[in-house]
């Protein structure tokens, strides 16, 4: 059975540790590179901080050949984020830092992680979403703006109980969905319970059922800057408009069951450089 509709409904409904070889001192290298966490697992965000010897352009950071944007920090430092997901193969990841001063190759061990599985039986012909909503959501996920609006740990967007965690894998009608994983965290609460933004940012997506958001339901997308995005779906009400700037903890809507939802809940997806990452490290620890 072919199970595809933009990665099975867009994912709505974690061997080794950090290799310390290659991380030598500034005396030996023009680029001093720090990689965190020290033992990343599938779904983690990997932070790559590069300290340069002076006023130089931002270095290029790649992981297994894919480039990721780097942004300036203080004291001649730049940072790039490498997102990982349950779809990545565990094992060695080669991170290359290159620029005007030198090129460095470092190795990171990405640990495996056991994600819970669900078995779903599909019956009938429920809505698989519209091209309009997928086009708008996909365009939102591509955003990478230069200014950072988040700082430290992200806030919990709902006080409801966690009803489904990040990374859950699924079988549909007995067949494993290779490209599916739950791309966020679900919070169950009563209809009308407040939904707040986990960090400051600009509202870049507002979608409503009336506009064709049949799958996601009423939707809000927030650009926190530098490739970090939040998407909130299934809302009963939306309290913001596209272009608004929102503060961390500001109410943006209310929990509902719009779209493809079996009951009232908030689905919060946290995207980084187009990949849905585990929000837990961002909630408990955060990044500089």
From TrEMBL:
Coiled coil: none annotated. Pfam families: Peptidase_M23. Residues 181-279 form the M23ase beta-sheet core domain. It comes from the Bacteria. PROSITE patterns: TAT. GO terms for molecular function: metalloendopeptidase activity. This is M23 family metallopeptidase. The lineage of its organism: Bacteria, Bacillati, Cyanobacteriota, Cyanophyceae, Leptolyngbyales.
């Amino acid at each position: 059975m072919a199970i595809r509709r933009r990665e099975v409904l867009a994912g709505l409904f974690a061997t080794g540790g950090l290799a310390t070889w290659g991380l030598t001192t500034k005396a030996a290298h023009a680029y001093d590179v720090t990689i965190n966490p020290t033992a990343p697992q599938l779904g983690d965000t990997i932070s790559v901080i590069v300290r340069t010897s002076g006023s130089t352009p931002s270095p290029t950071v790649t992981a297994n050949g894919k480039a990721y944007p780097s942004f300036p920090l203080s004291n001649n430092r730049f940072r790039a984020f490498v997102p990982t997901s349950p779809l990545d193969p565990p094992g060695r990841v080669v991170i290359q830092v290159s620029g005007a001063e030198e090129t460095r190759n470092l190795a990171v061990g990405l640990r495996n992680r056991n994600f819970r599985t669900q078995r779903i039986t599909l019956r009938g012909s429920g809505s698989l979403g519209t091209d309009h909503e997928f086009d708008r959501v996909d365009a939102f996920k591509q955003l990478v703006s230069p200014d950072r609006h988040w700082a430290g740990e992200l806030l919990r967007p709902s006080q409801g109980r966690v009803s489904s965690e990040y990374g859950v894998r699924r079988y549909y009608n007995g067949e494993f969905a290779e490209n599916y994983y739950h791309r966020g965290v679900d919070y169950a609460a009563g209809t009308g319970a407040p939904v707040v933004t986990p960090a400051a940012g600009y509202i870049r997506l507002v979608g409503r059922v009336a506009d064709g958001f049949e799958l996601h339901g009423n939707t809000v997308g927030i650009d926190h800057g530098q490739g970090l995005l939040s998407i909130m779906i299934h809302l009963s009400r939306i309290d913001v408009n596209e272009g608004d700037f929102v503060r961390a903890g500001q109410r943006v809507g209310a929990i509902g069951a719009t779209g493809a939802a079996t009951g009232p809940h908030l689905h919060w997806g946290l995207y980084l450089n187009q990949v849905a990452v585990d929000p837990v490290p961002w909630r408990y620890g955060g990044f500089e």
